[in-house]
Specification:
By secondary structure, the chain is α+β, with helices and mostly antiparallel strands. The chain is 29% helix and 30% strand. It folds into 2 domains: 7-114, GMP Synthetase, Chain A, domain 3, CATH 3.30.300; 122-213, Ribosomal protein S3 C-terminal domain. The chain contains 5 helices and 10 strands, in the order αβαββαβααββββββ. The chain has a 4-stranded mixed β-sheet with strand order 1-2-3-4. A 4-stranded antiparallel β-sheet has the order 6-5-8-7, with helices on one face. A hairpin with a 4-residue loop joins strand 2 and strand 3 (72-78). Helix 2 runs antiparallel to helix 3 (89-103). It is globular and about 55 Å long.
Length: 228
C-alpha cells in the first residue's frame, strides 16, 4: 500500500510544509479552503492568458497563501522573469484587483509578492506543464520524457521519474510508460520528494503526467523531543 500514498502528504510535517497558513474557527475552514482554491485558479488562468511568449514562460511552481487578522499575503513562486520586471507592475495590479473583486474582500488588504525560481525545470509543476505543451504539439512521448530529464539534469537533484498514461501517440489502447534517471526512493520518509500530477488535453484524449523529483535526504528526523 506504500505506492498508494500521496508522496507529499506522506512527508507532511517531516520535510514538506503547507502552502496555506491560517488560524480560523472550525466553521470558517471550508470557506477559506474554497477561497484558496479560487485564488490559485485565478492566478494560473491570468498568467496563462497574458504570457504570450512561450520562450520566456517558466510556469508557476507553487503559490503560498498566508492569512492574518487583516491582510492576505500571496507569494507566487514563478520561473519566468517577465513578471519580475517593473514594467509589468500594471499586470500585477490588474491581477490583484481581479482577485479582490472575486473574493469581495472589501476593506481587507491583499498583498502579492513574486519570488523567482532559480531552476524552473527543477519544479515538478513547471516541468509537467512543459511536458504537457510538448504532447499537445504532437511530439513523441519518449522524446518528450528524454528531453524533460535532460532539462532537469542532475546538478542539484539526485533522481527523477516521469510517468505518462493514456492513449500515447494516438494508439487505440491506453497504456502507462515511464522513464527514470537516478534514485527515487518513495518508501523512505526522510527523502525529500517533489511531486506533481498534471493532465494534458490532446486530440486523442487526456494524458496523465506524473513527475517525481528526488532532491536529497534529511540527515535527522525529529519525533517529539527526540532526534533520530
Amino acid at each position: 500500500m506504500g505506492r498508494k500514498i500521496h508522496p507529499l502528504g506522506f512527508r507532511l510535517g517531516v520535510n514538506q510544509k503547507h502552502y496555506s497558513y491560517r488560524f480560523a474557527q472550525m466553521e470558517d475552514y471550508p470557506k477559506f479552503l474554497e477561497e484558496d482554491r479560487k485564488i490559485r485558479t485565478s492566478i494560473e488562468k491570468y498568467v496563462e492568458k497574458h504570457v504570450k511568449d512561450s520562450s520566456n514562460y517558466g510556469g508557476i511552481g507553487h503559490i503560498e497563501i498566508q492569512r492574518k487578522t487583516d491582510p492576505i499575503r500571496i507569494e507566487i513562486h514563478t520561473g519566468f522573469p517577465d513578471l519580475l520586471v517593473e514594467e509589468h507592475s500594471l499586470g500585477i495590479d490588474q491581477m490583484k484587483s481581479d482577485i479582490e473583486h472575486m473574493l469581495g474582500l472589501g476593506n481587507r488588504k491583499l498583498r502579492i509578492t513574486l519570488n523567482n525560481v532559480t531552476q524552473p525545470y527543477g519544479e515538478p509543476k513547471i516541468l509537467a506543464e512543459h511536458v504537457a505543451s510538448q504532447l499537445k504539439n504532437r511530439v513523441a512521448f519518449r522524446r518528450t520524457m528524454k528531453r524533460a530529464i535532460e532539462l532537469v539534469g542532475r546538478t542539484s537533484n539526485k533522481g527523477i521519474k516521469i510517468q505518462i498514461a493514456g492513449r500515447l501517440n494516438g494508439s487505440e489502447m491506453a497504456r502507462v510508460e515511464w522513464a527514470r534517471e537516478g534514485r527515487v526512493p518513495l518508501q523512505t520518509i526522510r527523502a525529500r520528494i517533489s511531486y506533481c500530477y498534471h493532465p494534458a488535453q490532446t486530440i486523442h484524449g487526456v494524458l496523465g503526467i506524473k513527475i517525481w523529483i528526488f532532491r536529497d535526504t534529511e540527515l535527522s528526523l525529529s519525533i517529539g523531543n527526540e532526534t533520530l
